[in-house]
Structure formats: C-alpha cells, structure tokens
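Long-time lurker. I teach an intro course on protein structure, and each term I like to show students one example going from raw sequence to a predicted 3D structure in token notation. This year I'd like something fresh instead of my usual example. Would anyone be willing to generate the tokens for the chain below so I can use it in lecture? Attribution to the forum is fine with me.
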Amino acid sequence: MEENMEQSQQVEQEAAPHCYWHPAVETRLYCRDCDKAVCTQCMVQAPVGIKCRECGQAARMPTFDVQPSYYARAAGVAVAIAIGGGLLWSLFVSLFPFFPSLGAVAVGYAAGELISRSVNRKRGVWLAWIAGGSVVGAFLIARIIIGPLLGPLGWLVFGFSVYAAVKKVR
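-- Reply from a regular --
Happy to contribute to a lecture. Here you go:
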C-alpha cells in the first residue's frame, strides 16, 4: 500500500508542470503561442491572453525601424539640401530682400519633406538630427554667399525652419 502511495505521489509530481524559466515553481499557466509553462512572474498579459516572455515582447514598429542604409541615404540628401538650399536661400534673399525669413521656412519644410521621402517615411531621432543639420548647413552656405542674413526676428524664423525639418522625420 505504501508503494502505491509513493508511486501516485511521484506521478503527481512528474505531471505537475513547472515554469520554463523557474523550474522550482509549479504552475498551470501556459503561453498562448508556444505552449510553454509560465509562472505569474514570467507571464505577459496580452490582449489575446497569457504569453511567455519571448512571445510577449513588443515588436518594433516598422516606421521607427531605421536601417543604416537609410541613414546613409538621408545624409546624402541632407548634403544636397544644404548646398542647394543655401544657394536658393541666398538667391531668394537677393530677389526679395524684405522677406528673408520666407527662404528659411521654405528650406526647413523642404528639408524635412525630402529626407522623409528619401527614407520611405521612416522616423527617428538621428534622422531628425540629420534634417536639422541640413537646414543649418543651408544657412551657413547662404551666409557665406551673401553675408549676415538674420535680425532678431529672423533667428526666431530660422529656429522655426529647423523645427519644421525635424518635425517631419521625428
């Protein structure tokens, strides 16, 4: 009789599932996707039920998954924007001396839009730095060509143009 009790206890102990990550913890919870046993410390509550740590990890949104090739493409476009934008900005200031800030806004918006399109509408912090840098580069090139550009209000508009470029890709 004692043998039967020991055998039944062994069968119960072997049949009781244990957490995949904590073998000492018994559990009756299973991952919805991979069917691993999980304890309450390891489970992730998902909209479709309980998942394990591996299956419950949040996937990165494709919009923010920027590959190195996109950064290289964005940097190339930024250099072109800095040169072309600087030339156009200086031309705009020469043609319309009363509205130099409009050139800044146009360069800022165009920089953000062109970089965004070149990287397939991806977004990221480093793309924002590249876009802002392209506007600063355009400003420096225009300043070299025609001299001082901005008064106190112009600096505010210049800041807005950098913001417009950054906002498009951040």
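Some talking points for your students: The helical segments are 2-15, 68-95, 100-118, 125-146, 152-169. The first strand starts at residue 29 and ends at 30.
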